[in-house]
Write a structure and sequence with these properties.
- The complex is a heterodimer of chains A (110) and B (114).
- Chain A is built from no helices and 11 strands.
- In chain A, strands 2, 4, 5, 9, 10 and 11 form a 6-stranded mixed β-sheet that branches. Chain A has a 5-stranded antiparallel β-sheet with strand order 1-3-8-7-6, with no helix packed on it.
- With 114 residues, chain B is mainly β.
- Chain B is globular.
- In chain B, 37% of the residues are buried.
- The model of chain B has no long low-confidence stretch (mean pLDDT 92).
- Classes of the chains: A mainly beta (110), B mainly beta (114).
- The interface between A and B is medium-sized, with 22 and 26 residues.
Amino acid sequence: TQLLEQSPQFLSIQEGENLTVYCNSSSVFSSLQWYRQEPGEGPVLLVTVVTGGEVKKLKRLTFQFGDARKDSSLHITAAQPGDTGLYLCAYDNYGQNFVFGPGTRLSVLP
Amino acid sequence: NAGVMQNPRHLVRRRGQEARLRCSPMKGHSHVYWYRQLPEEGLKFMVYLQKENIIDESGMPKERFSAEFPKEGPSILRIQQVVRGDSAAYFCASSATGPGAEAFFGQGTRLTVV
């Protein structure tokens, strides 16, 4: 099982700021998924990236899959308090299960 | 609400007792996964089940933990003789066609062992 690293571990910013969080590994993946987990809730799938270099936008969120398919980033523009949560990346482990990174805990202050 | 339903949401057990966590998948989903999340950590895979079959239990401790997904009724994660280290949030997810498909998570059961 390959490991996923996420950085930063914690991030606290003011409303309106931009931010980028990262998901890295030394392994190549066929796809990566990004989830957001709010306190007291289960993770919710945001996006799946499949193609190297792919960029997907979801309103103020921009997801990019690295050219070599080893890493991914999530950029949030003009962050809002509603963006607060734990952002998790995950990969499909040979069709058996999903392996999650440790997450980036984001706090957006009003 | 046709989402993944987990109950109870919160469970308190004394050391040595048994904990039973239930998960009803989304309608039409026959693939269920259990994950454990410790405070301030990501999710760790425990077990993957289809109806009446355990497909992959590589993430589940060999002792005290068991899981089932009967033909009728919810999936059950059972922890016998709980210890303080079992305190965590346990999440269930379901999908329609296996791990390659989108998985939907329940709200979790927060187990506290006192």
